Amino acid sequence: QVQLVESGGGLVQAGGSLRLSCAASGRTFNQYGMGWFRQPPGKEREFVAVITWSGGSTFYADSVKGRFTISRDYAKNTMFLQMNSLKPADTASYYCAADRRTWGYYSASPDISHFGSWGQGTQVTVSS
Length: 128
Known about the structure:
By secondary structure, the protein is mostly beta strands.
């Protein structure tokens, strides 16, 4: 089981930027993929971005493509989500997640059931 701790959320004006971090422990960091999901107020949790165990492939939801960048630092066992050109529609609780599989791969629409470990969430609020 992977333990995940997110940080970096906050309040920002539209057009601004934030960087979310997700520190992982409890499992060899370079053996599993990781992802970011978000849950807007009153809505279901949705996929944002995913990165493979090697860092060699990434996929993004259409709504964030070109604005968000997912990455991971193997020396720090940490995953990041750089969010630029933020919009009010990006307001949500953001969750990082770790794939329960070892060395799994993804399609453009990752199966959320692959993700067995979740962080506590961090709130991102974008004002207009």
